[in-house]
Amino acid sequence: MAIKLGGEFEVRRALEEVFDFLTDPNRFAPLLPEFQGMSMQDATHFTVKVNVGVSYIKGIADVKLELSENQRPARAQYKGQGSVAGGTVAVTASFDLSHLDGVTKVNWQGEAQVFGRLASVAGGLLEPLGKKNVQKLINGLQTALAGQQPEPSAVPSAVPATEPPATEESGA
Amino acid sequence: MNQQDSNARKNWVGQSLPRKEENRLLRGRGKFTDDIKRREMLYLSFVRSPYAHAKILNVDVSAAQALPGVVGTLTGAEIAPQTQPFIEIGPDPFARIKDYPLGVTKVRYQGEPVAAVVAESAALAEDAAELVQVEYEALDPVVDAEEALKDRSLLHEEAGTNRVWNGVFEYGDVEKAFKEAAHVVSIDRLHFHRFSSTPLENNVIIAEWNPKDERIYYSCNNSFPSFAIQFLAAHLNVHIDRIRVETFDIGGSFGIKITSYPQMAVCALVSKKAGGRPVKWVETRSEHLSSSAHGNERTFRDTRVALDKDGVITAVASRHIDDCGAYPRYEPLGCVIWSQVFPGVYRFKNARIDFSQAVTNKCPVGPNRGYSRMQHLWFLERVVDICAHELGIPPDEMRLRNYIRPEEFPYTTPNGCVYDSGNYPKMLDVAKQQIGWDDWKKKQAAARKEGRLIGIGIGTTLDSGTNNFGQSQIVNPGLPYSGNSQGANCKLDIYGEVVVAVGSCPQGQGHETTAAQVVADVLGIHPDMVTVRTGFDTERNVHTGFSGTYASQFAVSGLSAVHGAAQKLKAEMKRLGAFALQTNEGELEFGTGAEGPELRARTTGKSINYWGLANLVNANSAALPPDLYELTLNCRYIWRAPFKVPDKIKKYGNLTLTYASQLHIAVVEVERDTFIPRILDYIAVDDCGKVINPPIVEGQVYGATAHGIGAALMETCVYDAVGNMLTSTFSDYTPITAVNMPNVRYGHVETPSPHSYSGAKGMGEGGAAPVHTISAALQDALFAEGVIIDDSFNNGDRLFRAIVTREFGQAEKLVKVEKRL
After folding, report:
1. DSSP 8-state class, residue B568
2. B33-139+203-282 in CATH: which number?
3. Number of H helices, E strands in chain B
4. How many contacts does A have with B, using Cβ atoms within 8 A?
């Protein structure tokens, strides 16, 4: 099943500063909800450990991530794949940045393709859980960026993308 | 007549006897496979694929093996070199595919096993399985059979196509019938959904590959062991006689436990690797729902129906696409089994069905109750109702105009099947009377004025029983199967007890009771004096290659074998009795005396009881004259069905021996606010010929009705676009329970079969009558909304999407009518 989320937020920081923050795994990854640790393979490849708990499926997921696009300072994209007991998740997260009047606007899109028992037994819970965790991530980003900027200039928003998750009955 | 004979003189067949099985089952004294504990037994857990379609790049079992308590692991890569791929029933190119019980280089459905872990406890095995790391490379999944036929993403590269089988079934003069038709109705697409069975007991297997005698011992609940051992022997490279399968009480199968042989293979191979320690696997409910077996899903495209001016169907042409999931296994038998009921209960003689079957990245199918025939029968019932509506003919009248008439039986169908007996108009009449058809019509008219959506639907269907396995040669002319047979053994044991062993593998159908009734009638004793052994054992029970419990056949094949064995025993007892009582056989009568069942001479009054007879053969044989040495009082009988091999080219021949029929009527209301369909009234009329035991038949009718209502309204296997099964728990699959069951009325019509010794017809599958009937009732409720019921599954959500958001079933897109008169 596919979960697609998207939204935008604004911070009163320079475009390059925001971009550098988002593309630095050492600063970005710890903001992931339920972050447990990470290891860097090279400058663009790293593995993050996060706690996963959906219904009775609980455990630590190893998510291998790659900074797959790095067009400083306009666009960045992470791609990755994670596994946890009962399922695997393929994730893509992209950030498109623009700057106007001292404010950097971050337009983000995230997609998670979930495979396995995780989708089978907890499919209905995944989308709200995903939304909740994305909101946490955005809040974390804002807080972290706010540490360098006393007054955040915009309220974050996390809204679902227009395309609904694919849950249709096959062949019907 | 002795007092004791008063009961024995009854004809026990036809009596409403309580089931012998209830004594232990209702008191919790049944013995199921999971009740068995063996010394040094290990427990198995499968590692399953999260992907519907992927390459297996690496399987790392090291972490699992390092866990204390883990005894061993097994991967597909280990299995492939030491086994043969499973036998394929279909012809080339699908005969070339390599089906192993664990994924070797690829996985083809979510939940496919890729490795097995065995440990000292079930919990340890489950924990260890989670430590197995499998590296996959995801491939494009295909979850729709029509899409699969485009071969854009191949499941089995060895075959070079996803098309498992294709054949055209054509009879009569179809073109002429369409040319001369008064009306032609075209239906673009109909779809029969994928659902399964939910037996109380999931699959359970204990396997022991004994290193001392190099034999494999199974205790399990497979419901067709004589079929399973044929697959297992070839796969495991052992002689079939080195495999012993025992079953015990079985908590339901409904056909889908037939295909548990892949898991049986893994359990045996792990046992072998573990030095012969017994290995038990107990399937979880999620495993059962996602990866045991589902019923076949089928799509009906480009249907055209020719009718005369009176609404009599003269021809049907259509293209059918069956989805068998990732591996054919029991398939492509379903590609021909539907044609046992080719015209359904109708008289049309001209038809052309282009039938294809495709593999998809979904759970493999198995012969689920009503296997392959219910899909076709649902299709025909949809066709009849849609045509009736388009021509303005009431659905009951439409059926009466098209039913095969009672005087036409035995009736030969266009494809050569011989319907033994039936009276469909009478069944309709009985059903209408019992449900109060006219009253409901009035209530419906009044309710519609209030804006309520109430529909009344009829479903007429067939339960064909006792297959001619020669039909397998229609799908693959090279197969060495034809006819049908069943074995039974009936004996007097050393102390004179009548003991019967059947070749079937009962799962709740009351075989112990009905077999006892048959033997009791032959020997003139009470059924309680007959012991029918519980369960099945390939070493102990007489069986043939067709033995098992499936395809509604026990009442015909199983009881015919029992009857034959009892007759042989009776003949031996008479010869022995004549010697013992110094009289001739014509003087002897069977009955029950003061010392139990006995033979006695009418004129002298002398008698000998069963112990005395058994003693003569087993323990006092010096008293026997040589001409009686051949008597054993241990009689085996193999019953064979009178079939011929069908014409493989013309696809013509008698494919089944008996045709039980069902006629159901449902009154259903779709709630305006929630779109949830509610059953307001329901009648199930059944004709299975001579009834052996009425409560058992009635119970099977209720069971099949519940199964069908669940399928029609609550149970569906939902896959998302990437092949995740989204209904693998009871929270999502929502099987029907007693709480959801409406109050079902029961009616009975009896047209004895001329093709069985007792007049009985096999029954129990019910032809999925409720699926057809509820579709018909919903259709009746929604014609005015411009909605065609184009799918066999209709819950509130689907009806909302048909009525309000108009995503499905729009009449103007689906149905076209050409009226030439």
Report:
1. H
2. 3.90.1170.50
3. 24, 30
4. 94
Q: Where does chain B hold its CATH 3.90.1170.50 domain(s)?
A: 33-139+203-282
How many whole angstroms separate alpha carbon B318 and alpha carbon B334?
17
Q: Report, in this order, helix, strand and coil percent for chain B, each rounded to 5.
A: 35, 25, 40
Which residues in chain B have Cβ-Cβ distances shorter than 8 Å to A86? 50
pLDDT for residue A112 is more than 90 = no
Secondary element (H or E) of residue B486: strand B485-492
CATH 3.30.365.10 positions along chain B are 5-30+485-640, 165-196+293-470+646-819
Task: Determine contact, residues B532/B500, Cβ cutoff 8 Å.
Answer: yes
Cα torsion at A53, A57, A59, A64 (round to 10°)?
A: -90
Interface contact flag, A119 B720, Cβ < 8 Å: yes
> Choosing among B137, B286, B726, which should be mutated to test the A contact, i.e. which has the most A CBs within 10 A?
B726
Q: What is the pLDDT of residues A41-60, one digit of tens each?
A: 998 999 998 887 665 566 77
- Residues in A closer than 8 angstroms to B721, CB to CB, are 1-2, 166, 168, 170
> Of the candidates B297, B295, B340, B341, which has an alpha carbon nearest to the alpha carbon of residue B321?
B297
User: pLDDT, tens digit, for every residue of B262-321?
Assistant: 999 999 999 999 999 999 999 999 999 999 999 999 999 999 999 999 999 999 999 999
User: Tell me, what's the pLDDT at A169?
Assistant: 36
SS3 of B381, please?
helix
The shortest C-alpha distance from B811 to chain A (Å) reads: 16
Q: How far apart are CA B28 and CA A8, in angstroms?
A: 62
* Chain-chain contact of A116 with B724 (C-beta, under 8 angstroms): yes
Fold of B165-196+293-470+646-819: Aldehyde Oxidoreductase; domain 4 (3.30.365)
- Closest Cα to residue B380, out of B346, B403, B350? B346
Assign B725 to helix, strand or coil.
strand
Q: Which of A3, A113, A170 to mutate to test the interface with B (most CBs of B within 10 A)?
A: A170
Gap between the Cα atoms of B713 and B708, Å rounded: 9
What confidence tens digit (pLDDT) does each residue in B341-383 have?
A: 999 999 999 999 999 999 999 999 999 999 999 999 999 999 9
The residue type of B433 is Q
Percent of chain B whose predicted confidence (pLDDT) is above 70 = 99
Question: Would you tell me which CATH number, out of the four given (2.60.200.40, 3.40.350.10, 3.40.1180.10, 3.30.365.10), belongs to the domain B5-30+485-640?
Answer: 3.30.365.10
Residues in A touching B299 (Cβ below 8 Å): 171
Q: How many residues are recorded in chain B?
A: 821
HSE-up of B30 (CA within 13 Å, CB side)? 18
| Tens digits of residue pLDDT in B511-541 | 999 999 999 999 999 999 999 998 899 998 8
pLDDT tier at A168, thresholds 50, 70, 90: very low
**pLDDT at position B4 over 70:** no
CATH topology of domain A2-155: Alpha-D-Glucose-1,6-Bisphosphate; Chain A, domain 4 (3.30.530)
Out of A83, A115, A117, closest to residue B286 by CB = A117
